[in-house]
Structures are given as C-alpha cells and as structure tokens.
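User: Predict the complex with glutamine.
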Amino acid sequence: MSVKYIFITGGVVSSLGKGITAASIGLLLESRELKIAMLKLDPYLNVDPGTMNPFQHGEVYVTDDGAETDLDLGHYYRYTHSPLSKASNSTSGQIYDQVIKKERKGDYLGKTVQVIPHVTDEIKERINACSAQEKTTQIVIVEIGGTVGDIESLPFLEAIRQFRYERPKDCINIHLTYVPYLKAAGEVKTKPTQHSVQVLREIGIVPDLILCRCEQALTDEIKAKISLFCSVPQDAVIDEKDVAHSIYEVPIDLHAQRLDEMICKSLGLKTKNPDLSAWEKMVYAALHPKKKVVIGIVGKYMDHQDAYKSVFESLHHAAIKAGVGLEIRRFESDRIVENGSVEKAIQGCDGYLVPGGFGERGWEGKILTARYCRENQIPYFGLCLGMQVMIVEFARHVLGLKNAHSTEVNPNTPDPVISMLSEQKKIQMLGGTMRLGAYPCEIKKGSLAHKAYGKTLVWERHRHRYEFNNQYKQAFEEKGMLFSGTLEKEHLCEISEIPSHPWMLGVQFHPEFKSKPLAAHPLFADFIASTLLEKRAAPPKKKLMTNA
Ligand code: GLN
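Assistant: Here is the predicted structure with glutamine placed in the model:
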C-alpha cells in the first residue's frame, strides 16, 4: 500500500485548535491499528520557535533529537505514537534557509530561483522526509500552520496542491473552520466558512471534509448549507463543538460523528474496528474525580494560555492517574515580590510548581516560593529553572551564602552555585545552541526520584545553558541536599531533592515533554500523590533549617 497523506488547513481565525484536531485524527487512526506520522508546517520565518518569546509563541516543545519545535508537537506526543523529531516540524525560515544554501552551493546553477518550483519542492521534500522516518508509516498527517488567506502560508498551500495533483489517490484535505453563533442575530453563521473554502478553491484545493469549530452542535440545516456552498457531502461536514471539560474528549466526539470512518473511506483504507476503550476510560476518570488537588504554578508567563502547555497537561495526567480533580492556580512571580508577603500571595495550595524560564524577571518571587515550601514542608516541584531556583534558595538560606545566584542573572555573584557550562561559554549564536534533547540520567537507589521512577536509568529532555556548579556539591550534601540524578559521563547534576522534606525535588530537564494522558510521567504522578498524603507533617512553628 502506498503511503497516504492527510492535509489539515485552518480557516477564518487562528487558535481553533488545529493541533488538537490533527492529534485527535492521529489517535483515531491509530485506534484502527494504522501506523501514522505527523508533521507541522509553520509559515513564520524563524528557523524554529526557540528564539521566540513565550508571549509570542507559547511553549517550545523539545524532541529527543534536540529539535526546538512548535507546541502542537506536544499534542501529537500526548495523543499519538507518531515519531517526533527534527523531521516533524518545518518552518518557512528553515525552508528558505535551505533553498538559499543550495543556491549558494550552485545546485540551481543557471536557473532563476523562485517560490514555485524551488520553495514548493523543498516543502514537498519535507513531507517526504517525514514519511520516510519509519518504513512502517501508512499515513502522514500534515498540519499547515496559520490561516488560509494569509500571505505567509501560500507556498505551503501551493505545495500541498501540487503534492495531491501528483498523487491524487493518496491524499485528502481537511479544512478546519469556524462557525460562529451571533448572539444579536440569534443565529449560527456559515458565511466565513464559505469564504474560507472559496479562498482554498482559488488556490486549487478542494476540501474533502470540513470540520466546524462551534459552540453548540450544528443542525442538519446548517450542515446542508455548508455542504451545498462548499461542495462536500453533508456527512462530511462535521462539527467540533467546544468540549465541556477536557480536550481529551475531542477524539471521542469526532469518532461519534464517524470522522475516522470517512477518512478511511476517502483514502480507500480497510482497517480493523477502532478500539478507543482505554482512552474512553481515561476521559471518564478525568470527568469523574473523587476529590480535588490545588496546585500553584509560579512563573512569569502566567497570563499566556500556552506558555506552559505541557506542564499543565502533565499535572492533569497525574491527577487523572490519582483519580482526583485538579485546580491550577496561576501566580505571576513578580507580583509575589510586590505583594510583600509570600504567604499572603500564594498560600492555600496543596503543592507548588516552578516551571522553566529565562532571564532575570521573576527570579526573586520564585526564590520566595521555594523557601516558603521548604520551610513549611509543602510539596515543591522545580522544572529546569525551577531546580536552579531551589538550589539558589538553599544556598542562600541554608548554606548562608547570602549572595548566591545563577550567573545567568548575576555574572558577578561571589557564589555562582548555578553557572554556565564551559562548552556553552564559547557559543555566540542564540538559536539552537542550548543543551538540547535527550540525555541519560542515573538515579540513586533509595532516593525519592528512584521511588517515583522505579528504575536507575532514565532518559529525559533538556533545554538550558546553566547547570549546578559541582564545586558546591559537598557543602550542599553536608546540609541535607541529595543529588539523586546525574549525567555520569559529564558529572552533571540532573535531580536534586531534600530527603528531610516530604516532597521537594528539582530536575534540570523537562519531564513535562514526556507525559501522556494514558501514561502520566512518574515524577508528576508522585508529586500529585504527595499532595494527597493526609498525614503530611504539620507546618513547623519555627522556620526550619534557616540560618539567614
Ligand atoms: N535559563 C535557565 C538555563 O538556561 C533555565 C532554562 C529553562 O528553564 N528551560 O539554564
């Protein structure tokens, strides 16, 4: 069987949840035992999102092979088993960069280098490269970023038009659009969808299926209208209404409208009956929690929906596993300092998490959070920067090194307990030059990390430049910190924990990139479980372990 391709475009507005839709389609096809691969094509000119501010782009998702990619790959990871690597995300920046490199090498000698065919050929090569990652791949799902009608996405749309023209039997197009309900008119409006499909048709793309994002299920009358104006059969107009509680409901809703059946039919695929039982069980558990856990996240991009996407999702997975509901309270770390009292600012949560981050802003609020948790025996989970904060706080208030810091914030600190690796010091360019991707981490037996993972060797993904400074290791250990995970080959500290505390642990890596709703990450699972321990030691009257 030749490889089949599903192209997903978006219409009318951005933020419709194209990534979740693409991932849901992947999940539904996998439930029929099809082997899929997923690709995100992003029209912006950055080579990757690694250099973008999280306020602009949201989270940067890192793959095992160290690619800094679009956050939609996080959805692909959580919903599917698609291979995810550098071949799973391409941007206009990468594509133009490659075309220009080829031109300089003389590969196009004599020719005028143009968007068609040179840029479009490069895009088609990326689609083929994604498909070639694994020999067993049967279906490639290609999500085109941006909205139809944008200038930027035109080369991508032209490329997928050509791709289908060259393999008419192997491709389908799915258009995800928005069908708004106008309160004043008391009606659902199909006109934006008609226009969006018209724009696609001008380019030469005719959608086979139209998915309509909407608040409420669409009536048959509305579906008939979209069908007539957009030339798709009525049963190929599918509504993707807002889900009540969990984004993990989306595949179930789409399956109920026979989306996967229609995709298979359009592509001429005969498959096994779908088995969604494990997923359905998980969604049921997510919707029927027994009690509730409240987790405070202290970061500096809290107002952005997507800046800590994988962290939020990982907490949800752990809560689902524990059978509890999850309330996340967001705290801007800056405001904790402004407030004057950390207790007043953040109290009332069962545990706190400090996620990754860069730069000076927000540091001191995070330090206050780590201290509050350490002294009051409240569970604390530090991710990447969150571990560095935990180390600096311990240095200042337990080791008495009042001016200890990370050299990222204070290059002249007398006690650089977090400092840059010597190999990083030589680096001039910002893009793609951090310590990136999967590295092995050896875990000390008997530690909290060992209890959580249940093994002594794990692989976790990294994205950072600074590390714990081993010159201080002995001093930390003497005062009660345990370095329970290390990258032995390079003597780097990967996990720190405080054994005398109920649950205070920091990791230099990003476990949030490897958690799935059906397989919660062990550290997140143990963190949430720790917040449920009823007999947690009562907060001490006096501050603990503090000599500052
Ligand atoms: N800014 C820190 C570093 O580069 C932490 C990075 C992160 O949290 N991802 O080491």
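Residues 356-358, 384-385, 408, 463-466 surround glutamine (CB under 6 Å).
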